[in-house]
Amino acid sequence: MGKDSRNKTLAENRKARHEYFIEESFEAGIELVGTEVKSIRAGRANLKDSYADIKNGEVFVCNMHISPYEQGNIFNKDPLRERKLLLHKQEILKLTAYTAQKGYTLIPLSLYLKNGRVKVRLSVARGKKDYDKRNDMLEKAAKRDIDREMKERSRY
């Protein structure tokens, strides 16, 4: 019986696509404790206000909340602790160059399983202004109206 190679999304940062322009994405491993993995698999992770930071040539994800595992007792860690991301040196250098530019930040988009391991989709993002968000909402509403009209016309 082989391993399941399909990706299964465990947590997603839906607000990120509304708040930021996504420039580039990277896949990263994440350093976790066993009880954290069990909690993530149970769907108890939250990426809402999380971000990544580069310290001493290493990338850490901050403010990612992983709820304590119920049966974990003494093995549970702090839910908001910094967790190290596992990336190649070239990728870290590329991320460092991006974040050195004004307005760019690192945002985790999703947590997912790949071949039984928890992975993070990390993206380089640039913050949107209020008028950008309004334009996106107007475009989305216009597309919805067009789709609705096309559906109405195809009924007759």
Automatic annotation (TrEMBL):
The keyword RNA-binding applies. Required for rescue of stalled ribosomes mediated by trans-translation. Binds to transfer-messenger RNA (tmRNA), required for stable association of tmRNA with ribosomes. tmRNA and SmpB together mimic tRNA shape, replacing the anticodon stem-loop with SmpB. tmRNA is encoded by the ssrA gene; the 2 termini fold to resemble tRNA(Ala) and it encodes a 'tag peptide', a short internal open reading frame. During trans-translation Ala-aminoacylated tmRNA acts like a tRNA, entering the A-site of stalled ribosomes, displacing the stalled mRNA. It is found in: Cytoplasm. One of its GO terms (molecular function) is RNA binding. InterPro entries: SmpB (IPR023620), SsrA-bd_prot (IPR000037), SsrA-bd_prot_CS (IPR020081). GO terms for biological process: trans-translation; trans-translation-dependent protein tagging. The keyword Cytoplasm applies. This is SsrA-binding protein. It holds the Pfam family SmpB. GO terms for cellular component: cytosol. The lineage of its organism: Bacteria, Bacillati, Bacillota, Clostridia, Eubacteriales. Signal peptide: none annotated. Keywords: Cytoplasm, RNA-binding. Its main location: cytoplasm. It comes from the Bacteria. Belongs to the SmpB family.
